[in-house]
Amino acid sequence: MLPYEPLIKTIHSKVKCYTRKTKKKIKSGETHSYSSKQFIIPLKNDQPFSCEEEVSILKSEDFFRMNNLLNQRRSDYEEQLQRIISLEQELNILKTKLKYYNDLEVDIKLLKLKRLERELFELEEKSKKQEEKINDLKKRLEKDEIINKGSGVLGKLSDLFINKNDKNP
Questions:
Q1: Residues 80-136: pLDDT tens digits?
Q2: Which runs of E-coded beta strand occur in the chain?
Q3: Are residues 17 and 10 in contact, defined by beta-carbon separation less than 8 angstroms?
Q4: pLDDT beyond 50 at 1
Q5: CA 25 to CA 126: how far, in whole Å?
Q6: What CA–CA distance (Å, rounded) separates 74 from 80?
């Protein structure tokens, strides 16, 4: 049994030919004999046709030429179908690769961004520490200036020592 239903029901048989002679009486009472060529196509009992069904007859060479052409077209179709399937698979593989590389590129950019954010955070922390040191140094200098200006005990003592040193040259 074929995996598909055939497009055409076919029977292969030989055409038999014979000459048939008939006699016919005409009006005058004479018998006139005619001969005609008759063609018979014998069919087996398992043939797929029903009674009084119209059929078309082809020469075997025409049928086989059409059948070969049909088989060739069918094989071409199957080849093209396989090619389409393989190209679709290749396209899916390429889409998957493209998505992977796009995701990879995004991941690389995210890693760079995180690294830059971490460096920025470290620089901000370093800047805050330096700022705190500067503020501490400013406070110390202000305290030293207050002490040196003479408003405190040490300032007065330093003024005394400086004044004595200026007078004793």
A1: 999 999 999 999 999 999 999 988 888 899 999 999 999 999 999 999 999 999 999
A2: 16-25, 31-40
A3: no
A4: no
A5: 134
A6: 10
CB 16 within 8 A of CB 42: yes
In this structure, what is the dihedral angle of CA atoms 96, 102, 108, 109, given to the nearest 10 degrees?
-160
The pLDDT of residue 68 = 92
What's the predicted TM-score (pTM) here?
Answer: 0.45
CA quadruple 151, 156, 157, 162: dihedral sign: positive
The pLDDT, as a whole number, for residue 67 is 86
Helix axes 153-167, 60-148, angle to 10 degrees: 60
In terms of residues, how long is the chain? Answer: 169
CA distances from 151 to 143, 144, 145, 156 (A): 11, 11, 9, 7
Q: Which amino acid is at 86?
A: S
Structural tokens at position 151? 């408003």
